[in-house]
Structure formats: structure tokens, C-alpha cells
């Protein structure tokens, strides 16, 4: 028999699980030449699921609708600029999530998933434009290092702010 806590956690995590599975599927099934466009689409799916995760946590956040709409339009507009749009969107996404997650803590699962999508976007875009080198500058290494360091600081910050109640099944 399923515990009510597990049912509640599954409901809370369902948008993040949809974003992670859907985004990963989009990226993995894309042909090489379409990786950037499909990764941008994965970030759009993630943003939409992030709003759903907020709705589950706090109810419909009407004050966030304009920000979400603008973010989604910018995300979709980046696809028009190909690899350069991918780099720009990826860097903006990585910096945005670093700032927000470290400043306010990150009690949502998508706060940890979305930066991975943006890092992949930067990696694919840099590779296509040949903006890479060896060592730390090889595609994927700098982005991975960024995500790991920011996630470590975010995890610490979320802990110091005491915001793990949402993740652990409590009210936030």
C-alpha cells in the first residue's frame, strides 16, 4: 500500500519528473544538427513545468505570469539565432539560476534540473561554433564545473535558509 507521504511527494515532483524525462528525451533523440534547437525546446518544457511546480507549492502565482511569459518568449526567440542564441540563452539561464538559487535557496527539484539543460545548451552551441579548446575549455567541462560548484553552494544555502521542507514533504 502506498503511503500518503509518497503520493504527495510524487505529486509535488511530477512537473520536475516530466521536465527531466521530457527534456532528456528531446535532447537524446535529436540529430546532431538539431541538438541546439531541441535543447532550447527542453528548456521551454522545463520553464513550463517549473511554473506547474510553483502552482502545486503555492497555488496559482498570478504575479509570476508576466515573467514566465517573457522568459518563454526569450527562450523560443533564441532558437531563431541558432548556436549564438543557444550560447546567449544558456549563459543567461546559468547566471539567472545561480543568482536566484544562491540568493533565495532552491527547495524545488527543477532548480537543480534547469541549470543542467542550460549547461548542455552552452556546450552544444560552443561545440557547433568551435568555441572550444582543450583541457578546461573542452566542451562540457567548464559547464559541468559551473553546475557542480553552483549546486554545491545552492545546496548549502538552501540548508542554511531552512527551505528543505518542500523537498521533504512539508509545507513551504
Helix segment count? Answer: 6
Which of globular, elongated, flat, extended, rod-shaped describes the shape? globular
Number of strands: 0
Low-confidence parts, pLDDT < 50 over ≥5 residues? none
Structural class of the secondary elements? mainly alpha
Tell me the radius of gyration: 17 Å
Kindly state the percentage of residues in helix. Answer: over 70%
Q: Residue-averaged pLDDT, rounded? A: 89
Q: Distance between the terminal alpha carbons, to the nearest Å?
A: 27 Å
Strand content: under 5%
Overview of the structural elements:
The chain has 172 residues and is an all-alpha fold. It has 6 helices and no strands. The protein starts with a helix and ends in a 12-residue tail after the last helix.
Keywords for this entry:
172 residues; globular; mainly alpha; 6 helices
How is this fold's topology laid out?
Layout: H1 4-29, H2 35-58, H3 65-78, H4 82-104, H5 110-129, H6 141-160
Task: Please provide a brief summary of the model.
The protein is mostly helical.
